[in-house]
């Protein structure tokens, strides 16, 4: 169950990271409320997951999911560059997450 909590926490990290863009510096109430709620829920679920997972593994995977999702959505939603080096770097993060999962 810890892996489920960790995965949901990582997905919520993507929500709040992307949400930051839509808050326009925390001046828009709706996006700000969603972003803050996602932040809190993400950290709470991470904390629950870390009851059963090593902290280094859990934190690295949580940030990795957030990083990958935010980078991909940045490309899709905000037309950020999708260079070969950027995509290869995302692939390395995926490989790291898979590696950490396999040894935990």
UniProtKB/TrEMBL annotation:
<feature type="transmembrane region" description="Helical">
    <location>
        <begin position="33"/>
        <end position="50"/>
    </location>
</feature>
<protein>
    <recommendedName>
        <fullName>Guanidinium exporter</fullName>
    </recommendedName>
</protein>
<keyword id="KW-0813">Transport</keyword>
<dbReference type="GO" id="GO:0005886">
    <property type="term" value="C:plasma membrane"/>
</dbReference>
<dbReference type="GO" id="GO:1990961">
    <property type="term" value="P:xenobiotic detoxification by transmembrane export across the plasma membrane"/>
</dbReference>
<keyword id="KW-0472">Membrane</keyword>
<dbReference type="Pfam" id="PF00893">
    <property type="entry name" value="Multi_Drug_Res"/>
</dbReference>
<comment type="similarity">
    <text>Belongs to the drug/metabolite transporter (DMT) superfamily. Small multidrug resistance (SMR) (TC 2.A.7.1) family. Gdx/SugE subfamily.</text>
</comment>
<dbReference type="InterPro" id="IPR045324">
    <property type="entry name" value="Small_multidrug_res"/>
</dbReference>
<dbReference type="GO" id="GO:0022857">
    <property type="term" value="F:transmembrane transporter activity"/>
</dbReference>
<keyword id="KW-1133">Transmembrane helix</keyword>
<dbReference type="InterPro" id="IPR037185">
    <property type="entry name" value="EmrE-like"/>
</dbReference>
<feature type="transmembrane region" description="Helical">
    <location>
        <begin position="84"/>
        <end position="103"/>
    </location>
</feature>
<feature type="transmembrane region" description="Helical">
    <location>
        <begin position="59"/>
        <end position="78"/>
    </location>
</feature>
<dbReference type="InterPro" id="IPR000390">
    <property type="entry name" value="Small_drug/metabolite_transptr"/>
</dbReference>
<keyword id="KW-0812">Transmembrane</keyword>
<keyword id="KW-1003">Cell membrane</keyword>
């Amino acid at each position: 169950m810890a892996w489920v909590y960790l995965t949901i926490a990582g997905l919520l990290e993507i929500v709040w990271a992307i949400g930051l863009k839509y808050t326009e510096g925390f001046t828009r109430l709706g996006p700000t409320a969603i972003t803050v709620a996602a932040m809190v829920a993400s950290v709470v679920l991470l904390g629950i997951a870390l009851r059963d997972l090593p902290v280094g593994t859990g934190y690295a995977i949580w940030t990795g999911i957030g990083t990958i999702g935010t980078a991909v959505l940045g490309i899709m939603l905000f037309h950020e560059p999708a260079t070969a080096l950027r995509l290869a770097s995302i692939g390395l993060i995926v490989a790291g997450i898979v590696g950490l999962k396999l040894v935990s």
